[in-house]
Amino acid sequence: MAEWIDLLDPSEEKLQSSLPGPVHDRALERLRQPIRHDDEPRPTIESHGDYVYAVFIVPVCRRRQDRVFYQEIDVLATHDLVLTVRKTPEGDRPFDEAPIREEVAKHPNAHPGRIVFFVLDAVAEAYLQVVDELDDEIDELEEAVETGDPAFVRERISDLRRHFLHIRRALWPTRDAADRVADKRVDLEGKELFPRSIELDFRDAYEKLLRAGDGLELSRDLLASVRDYLQAKIANDQNEVMKTLTAIASILLLPTFIVGLYGQNFQHHFPEIHWQFGYAWSWGLIVATTLVQLWFFRRKRWI
Q1: Number of H helices and number of E strands within the chain?
Q2: What is the spatial distance between Cα 161 and Cα 301, in angstroms, rounded to a whole number?
Q3: What's the fold here for domain 236-299?
Q4: pLDDT tens digits, residue range 122-131?
Q5: The model scores a pTM over 0.85
Q6: C-beta atoms surrounding 53 within 10 Å
Q7: What is the topology classification, in CATH, of domain 3-235?
Q8: CB-based contact 209:121 (threshold 8 Å)
């Protein structure tokens, strides 16, 4: 049976008092550091002889706010203790430990390696959830292509593409971490932290992360389709505008030609043939040709 200690944004004193013993400077520095918003730290799991240290990064999608942010949970495990350190992202909530707590409650005598698995399994489920959220976001964007502002849709597509890149950079190392445990490449000196049964559980977590990766790639393809759809919609709208402008220019062309031909610099008659109905004739010709063009372009659905 192992003790599980969960800390949320701990102070230096609280962190030091919870550590099972001496910790490598790099791991200790990572435990102290607040969560960042760039590509650091990279998710990992590694053995330091008498303890195993892991970092997991979890993306969270806020559809109503049109944003994606990242949570961090660090794990330090020995034969007797599992320490998790959760860090609160700026302006949002930390990783929810409730699923881990429920599993620990179901297995009060759980092996420390299994508690580490509970953490990784909760992280894998979070990745599956964020992929589903992103799929819903893409569906909304596809609907917005027809009714929304193209500038807004284009900006959201750009944001999502950037988030897809960051999520991939966090997902693949997390998947590799699960694979390293399942392949017996990470363990403690002497007594095993991850016996065979737990390694099989890590294999299940690996497959969840693999499924999340496949879903993420599919989502990227769907986002690319939405981008192509938007570009085609913009091009089609431009063609419609050009048709309308062409129709207007054509409608104005014939009256301009008629006025230029006859000059309209006479009173009641053509100066060439001295016809007293010349002015009315020119106006009738302008109206007639305009109506014919309006009928033609209307039939072509250019206006």
Answers
A1: 7, 5
A2: 37
A3: Methane Monooxygenase Hydroxylase; Chain G, domain 1 (1.20.58)
A4: 999 999 999 9
A5: no
A6: 22
A7: Methane Monooxygenase Hydroxylase; Chain G, domain 1 (1.20.58)
A8: no
